[in-house]
Design brief:
It contains five helices and six strands. With 204 residues, it is of the alpha+beta class. It has two domains: 63 residues; 113 residues, no CATH class.
Length: 204
């Protein structure tokens, strides 16, 4: 009887030892994680370094250049207000005409709006200044208004010599907005502008 009790006690002790060993898989997992991190550190470490470099470059371009804080990484989207827009003007000796934004070069226009460098602006201005422009009547909220649009193959049938817009310069003005704490309103301000002389007329 005593031998049976002793045997049962030893068996329970052995089972407890086995179960305690089996119930510690987290130790093996921690070792596996540490080993994985050690072996792959050279691949993981460049990721936060790259993100930091992108952040610093975006802050530099948005703080000291004309890049909008919402682009180039978008790190300023939740800490700053930005609503970029631009105007296109045909300029002559009597003044200027504000024109409709053409559908040509949409990607270039967005790039120029978000980051108006001299290169981006001059490329667009050079192209647009070489095009024909015409007056066109449109209706806005039931009111008749005169607008100016670029002549393309889609609307060239409406072009007439009398409706041709004369100009000697093409102008691009880029704006953004900032919060005015005194009026509690968003106020526009000029980011950059560029004016170039008219080039030889061509259109497609």
């Amino acid at each position: 009887m005593e031998s049976n009790l002793k045997h049962m006690s030893e068996k329970k002790t052995s089972n407890k030892s086995d179960s305690s060993i089996k119930s510690q898989p987290h130790l093996d997992k921690k070792l596996d994680d540490a080993t994985f991190l050690k072996l792959n550190l050279k691949y993981i470490l460049p990721i936060p370094i790259l993100i930091t470099l992108v952040f610093l470059n975006q802050m530099r371009l948005s703080s000291f250049d004309t890049l909008t804080s919402w682009k180039g990484g978008g790190f300023g989207m939740f800490s700053s207000i930005s609503y970029r827009f631009f105007h296109l003007h045909l300029v002559d000796s009597s003044g200027f005409n504000c024109v409709e934004k053409p559908r040509h070069n949409n990607l270039q226009q967005k790039k120029m709006r978000n980051y108006p460098t001299y290169k981006n602006m001059s490329a667009l201005a050079t192209f647009f200044s070489s095009q024909k422009w015409m007056f066109k009547t449109k209706y806005v909220y039931g009111k008749k208004e005169l607008s100016v649009e670029m002549v393309t193959k889609h609307n060239e049938k409406h072009w007439t010599p009398a409706g041709n817009v004369l100009f000697n310069k093409f102008e691009i003005l880029v704006f953004d907005v900032k919060f005015n704490p005194e009026t509690l309103e968003l106020a526009p301000y000029s980011v950059k502008d560029l004016s170039i002389n008219k080039t030889l007329e061509t259109y497609n």
